[in-house]
Amino acid sequence: MCARTPLFGPFWHVVSVCLVAASLVAALEAQGRGQASPASVRPPQTKTPQEYPRDQVEAGRTLFGSQCGFCHGRDTAGGAGGTDLTRSTLVAEDVRGDRIGPVIRSGRPSQGMPAFAPSDSDLAAIVAFIHDQKRQQDTATGGRRAVDVSDLQTGDATTGKRYFDGACAGCHSATRDLAGVATRYEGLTLLQRMLYPGGPGRGGKPARAPRTVTVTLPSGETVTGPLAYRDEFTIALTDASGWYRAWPVSQVKFTVDDLLQAHVDRLGTYTDKDMHDVLAYLQTLR
Fold first, then answer.
1. Mean pLDDT across the stretch 160-188?
2. For the chain, N or C: smaller number of CB within 10 Å?
3. How many other CB atoms are found less than 10 A from the CB of residue 98?
4. How confident is the model over 1-11, as pLDDT tens digits?
5. How far apart are CA 39 and CA 120, in angstroms?
6. How far apart are CA 284 and CA 196, in angstroms?
7. What is the number of alpha carbons within 13 Å of residue 249 lying toward its C-beta?
């Protein structure tokens, strides 16, 4: 079935890049968000202390970093539009996923978060990692959420160039599109642009370049247009007539032309050293 509704005015929808946990958004009742969290305010204390096997926590770290890290930060402390889960009352009151799990699986469509259906083991691992990060925050002596300049000067430019040549040079050039990039962006801004160049723009709206999707129907007919919405259940576009058209992903084939997807995919593979080394290299491009 294809849902069709006319569009009046610009259509915009935040497309979640998280495949399992997605963005817990305001449903996690955050007490603060990312760097905006005041250091003087302690996070809510965990009501039921919980311990998890280290291998489960590490599995959760990988899943969270690749599927949730963009929204909530690789350490759960807030990312591009996502809440700081270490300061979430819901997380503080959760017992082995009894509150986090329903939010992930039911979603909050009114706040831009679709429902997801991770396997029980993947969900348990993500919950374990969130609680492990929460435990570390509970016992931390400080609550800093800002970034010092010194935090960004630990990389090695030579190593970063090798990483760049192997992973980035297929799309980017130090002498063309990135020439002088370090004079246009500095410090944390440069790191953010490196990790997600289409991140939030003015007013918190995505600055991401338009994406085009081509949907092939069971009949063989193809429909192409700007991507309007995508999650693991639905793909939608705006067709040439201005209609919003949506299909269940299980009933069609589709391809998305998205130049920034490579950056999204790489978020789950960077180590901290990789990020700082590449940043050190980019800082030499003046």
1. 91
2. N
3. 11
4. 444 333 333 33
5. 35
6. 19
7. 11
